[in-house]
Amino acid sequence: MLGYRPADSPIEVNHHLCSGVGDLVEKERYQRLVGRLIYLSHTRPDIAYAVGIMSQFMHEPRAPHLDAVYRILRYLKSAPGKGILFSNHGHLRLEAFTDADWAGSIDDRRSISGYYAFVGGNLVTWCSKKQIVVSRSNVEAEYSDMAYLNCLMRTTSLLLFVYVYTTTSLLHVYKLIAVYEVRLKQSQLFDAYYN
């Protein structure tokens, strides 16, 4: 890895990695590399998405998957000083951002949800995962993701209220205008997820 050129991002933009394409590679080596990257991603949120994608192929790794893992390693080589830094911003406001990629998984066409949350301006949690069910539309995928994140924010707000006594919460949705326009028609769907 010393002779490799550093990468500017941990994964290619608009990647199309799927199972069953390419030659099989040594399974144990791939699992060891991805396992170490999973451990490292707890303090490096910049690689969490890429490592999550690579962990989907641990049972049958192929050459393109190993190349993508090497790209993560090349990215880490180019950015050794990145990590989580907590600082005092003078407030404990809870902010969360969410987005969903409708039918984003090539293998099973499930939507991929992603969110990250800040408490007091500091990143405290993030996630990128496939949704449990196949959504019928982009709006349904957004609603599902927004409802889940709203429950997470309510729980976090309750914990903050117990310890701090006061908190405010903001939920940012990437396609909020599209969600708002359909809100009146599909309010029962959101209410079912919300409650």
Structural write-up:
This protein has 195 residues and is an alpha+beta fold. It has two domains: 1-83, no CATH class; 94-194. Helices cover 42% and strands 15% of the residues. It contains six helices and four strands. Helix 1 (27-40) packs antiparallel against helix 2 and helix 4 packs parallel to helix 6 (187-194). The chain is globular. The model is unreliable at 176-195 (pLDDT under 50).
What is the mean pLDDT? 76
Helix segment tally: 6
The major pleated sheet works out as: 4 strands, mixed
- Helix and strand element order: HHHEEEHEHH
Which class of secondary structure composition applies to the elements?
Answer: alpha+beta
Low-confidence stretches: 176-195
The radius of gyration computed from the alpha-carbon positions, rounded to a whole number of angstroms, is 19 Å
Strand content: 15-25%
Question: Looking at the chains present, what oligomeric state does this protein adopt?
Answer: single chain
Q: Give the beta-strand count.
A: 4
Alpha carbon gap, first and last residue: 50 Å
Output the strand order for the largest sheet: 3-2-1-4
Number of domains: 2
**Form type:** globular
Q: How helical, in percent, are the residues?
A: 40-55%
List the helices and strands and how they pair.
Layout: H1 27-40, H2 48-55, H3 63-78, E1 94-101, E2 112-119, E3 122-130, H4 138-164, E4 169-173, H5 176-183, H6 187-194
